[in-house]
Amino acid sequence: MDNAIRVEHLSKEYPGFALRDLSFSVPRGSIVGLIGENGAGKTTTLNAILGLIRPEQGQVELLGRRYDPQNPEHRRRIGVVFDESGFPPHLTGAAIGKMMHLVYRELWDAAAFEGYCRRFALPQNKEIRDFSRGMKTKLSIAAALSHHPELLILDEPTGGLDPIVREEILDLFSEFIQDERNSILFSTHITTDLEKIADQILFLHKGELVFSRSKDDLIYQHAVARCTSAQFAAIAPEEYLRRRSLPGGGEELLVGDREGFARRHPQVVLDRAGIDEIMLFYVKGESK
User: Which of 79, 171, 212, 264 is the 20 to 30 A CA-CA neighbour of 3?
Assistant: First the structure.
């Protein structure tokens, strides 16, 4: 399968924190969500992919080639949105469009930028310092899309936004990947957004990749088994992934084969496992 991003054995050391031997890929035509608690290494991973920090080891390929952040041809194929827009606060939306034209030259699509601004109801003559957080995010996304990149890399693009604005942005992401050349990697704390649009989930914990799984596999194959101590005694360790002991007695188990577990233990209550709950099992639960 053709990959938009390929990361192999990426490692980066900081005092008190390290990314350790990360390897994963983002297939073309897909949306991949990067999740993990604060300090898990999500932003560090994105910065390493973009060449903004130099890893101690590992390599990154973007769109089939070793990425060179100094090469303008490489940069032009990628759109980037960080948690903060980074645009000068005294500029207006219209001035941002002119500035981006100077950066991307013939690749900049002024009509597309104006269209996104209209769609997002972004005023063209208002200074960015007076924009709300949601407006700044939408302006960043409009700018990132208006040179027609093949890959979007976004750090918390929907964080702190109200549900209506988030829905607008998710709709735009879904439209972007209708062209099967296009791909998205984005980090987020809002796992319900991923449940709506992501194809694949990467879960980082303390600088390590815990899993890279299909979103559908996580949602439809995983479940939470809630059992008494007696029921738990009849369950083999290989039948569950993680466990949590309940304060009042009994156990909660994260199950990776919902249908098989239900056939073997029909008396045990099984509930749907959302991405948040799966994360909690891996962070707070015990292995066996």
Answer: 171
The CA-atom distances, in angstroms, between 103 and each of 81, 96, 97 are 16, 11, 10
The counts of H helices and E strands in the chain are 11, 14
Write out the residue limits of the CATH 3.40.50.300 domain(s) in the chain. Answer: 1-77+158-215
Parallel, antiparallel, or unpaired for β 78-81 and 200-205? unpaired
Structure tokens at 142: 């409009």
Which pTM does this prediction carry? 0.91
Cβ–Cβ < 8 Å for 141, 169: yes
- Look at residue 83 and tell me whether its pLDDT is greater than 80: no
Q: Which tokens go with 39? A: 């300090």
Strand-by-strand arrangement of the 57-62 sheet: 17-27, 3-14, 57-62, 65-66
**Superfamily covering domain 1-77+158-215:** P-loop containing nucleotide triphosphate hydrolases (3.40.50.300)
In terms of Cα–Cα distance, which of 2, 45, 44, 38 is closest to 23?
45
pLDDT in tens, 232-250: 999 999 999 999 998 888 8
Q: Is 284 helix (H, G, I), strand (E, B) or coil?
A: helix
